Target: SDR family oxidoreductase
Amino acid sequence: MSKAKIALVTGGSRGLGENMAINMAQKGLNILLTYQSNKEEADKTVREVEKLGQKAYALQLDVAESKTFDAFVDEVKNVLESHFGSATLDYLVNNAGIGINSPITETTEQDFDTLVNIHFKGAFFLTQKLLPIMADGGGIVNVSSGLARFSFPGYSVYGSMKAAIETLTRYQAKELGSRQIRSNVVAPGAIETDFGGGTNKNDEDKRTVIANFTALGRVGIPSDIGGVVAFLCTDDAKWVNAQRIEVSGGMMV
Model:
């Protein structure tokens, strides 16, 4: 019996990240997930993965604080050995993120820096730091947004950072191809989670607007996304590389 592969999911304690972790576990992957502050939610996700017969472990990480990444990688190495019996990761999912809705005229430098640090700098350098312990033949999945393709007022910095991640994905695919490491990007549309204040879940007027913009006529749910990410972390996707996959139900088409 082949050894189960291991995926690290940042922001894997709730919302999209939780659903990604569960879907990957259903496909036979062991899960290492990160959380920023809510250990209780992270432990719940760990238990859900374990119910599916897979191993799981949660580590605290603030992806905005790149100076902590060296210590985090040391933690990952220790957990891989002690909990998973492995020296390497197979897949990395750069999912952690926040949303700040602010018009260009009102965006502060602090908000700008926060979004850059989380959505671009953090993903760039965390990947860089983890590459030495990633197995050849594995993969990276970066999480973007439909807002990198279409525009809604207030998301200029967020959307720009997601566009940067999409470009970075292609460079990763090019530079890591010699190690047979694939890199792809998944771009969700509007999903009903707590992200950005939870308006996609709780604001009925906004939900109606989104549904009218979407070919399939509804707001997305986390389970619309997790299975696509899980697919990219399997051998079924071994020839999918440097691709942007939008999972939005056909928003703004």
In short: The two ends are 45 Å apart (CA to CA). Strands lie at 6-9, 30-35, 56-60, 89-94, 134-143, 182-188, 244-247. Residues 9 and 33 are 5 Å apart (CA to CA). The mean pLDDT is 95.
